[in-house]
Specification:
Elements: H1 3-7, E1 12-16, H2 21-33, E2 38-42, H3 48-58, E3 63-67, H4 72-80, E4 86-88, H5 93-99, E5 106-110, H6 113-121, E6 126-129, H7 137-145, E7 152-155, H8 164-168, E8 176-178, H9 184-188, H10 192-203
Parallel strand pairs: 1-2, 1-8, 2-3, 4-5, 5-6, 6-7
Helix pairs in contact: 2-3, 2-10
Length: about 200
C-alpha cells in the first residue's frame, strides 16, 4: 500500500498519543468500529513502539502507522514494530534517503514549496501539510495546487471538527489529521463508546 492509498482510506487520521499501554488496543478498536481505519501513533511517549506493535498484531482492519518520526533510526524502529506507514513533522535529506526503496511509505511534513520540491526529487507525491493553520491553511493549499498538480496533502495542526470539512473540500487534500478523535479525557476515562461515536461522525 503506497502513501496515497493510505491517505484515501478515510477523511480523518487520528493523531494519537498513547500514555497507557493498556489503552492501545481498546482505543484502536473503538476507532475502527467507528469507521476510522488509519491510525497515527505518535512517537511522543516511551511506549509508542510497543503500542504500534500490539495494534498491528491484534486489531483487525486497522492500518497503523507512526507519527513524529524524526530520523532514519526511528524509521527502522517503526518498520520493525509493524507500522504500515511513517509520518514525520518535517523533511530532511537523511530521512528522505532512508525512506527510498523501502516498502513502508514515508509521508513527510512540509510547509513550503521548497520542501515539497525536495520530496518530489526523492519520488514522493504525498505530504503532510504541517502546521497547517500556522503555515497558511486553506489559502496556502490553494496556492500549492497551481504549480504542483497531482500532489496530495494531509493537513495537520489546527484542524478541528469546525473546519476540517473546509479542508476536505480542496481537490488536493485527501484527508486531514486531528487529535479530536482521541481526546485525552475520554481515553483516560476509557470511554470507548464515546470515541466510537466521534469516529462515526468524522468518517462520513
Amino acid at each position: 500500500m503506497n502513501s496515497k492509498d493510505i491517505l484515501t482510506l478515510g477523511p480523518v487520521i487520528p493523531v494519537m498519543v498513547i500514555e497507557d499501554l493498556d489503552d492501545a488496543i481498546p482505543l484502536a478498536r473503538a476507532l475502527v468500529k467507528g469507521g476510522v481505519r488509519v491510525l497515527e501513533i505518535t512517537l511522543r511517549t516511551p511506549i509508542a513502539l510497543e503500542a504500534i506493535r500490539r495494534i498491528a498484531g491484534s486489531v483487525e482492519g486497522a492500518v497503523v502507522g507512526a507519527g513524529t518520526v524524526l530520523n532514519p533510526r526511528q524509521l527502522d524502529q517503526v518498520e520493525a514494530a509493524g507500522a504500515a506507514f511513517a509520518i514525520s513533522p518535517g523533511l530532511t535529506q537523511s530521512l528522505l534517503t532512508a525512506a527510498t526503496d523501502r516498502p513502508m511509505p514515508l509521508i513527510p511534513g512540509i510547509a513550503t514549496l521548497s520542501e515539497i520540491m525536495q520530496g518530489l526529487d526523492g519520488g514522493l507525491t504525498a505530504f503532510k501539510f504541517f502546521p497547517a493553520a500556522a503555515a497558511g491553511g486553506i489559502p496556502m493549499l490553494k496556492a500549492f495546487e497551481g504549480p504542483l498538480p497531482g500532489i496530495t496533502f494531509c493537513p495537520t495542526g489546527g484542524i478541528s471538527p469546525e473546519n476540517y470539512r473546509s479542508y476536505l473540500a480542496l481537490s488536493n487534500v485527501a484527508c486531514v489529521g486531528g487529535s479530536w478523535l482521541a481526546p485525552k479525557a475520554l481515553v483516560k476515562a476509557k470511554n470507548w463508546s464515546a470515541i466510537t461515536e466521534l469516529a462515526q461522525a468524522a468518517a462520513v
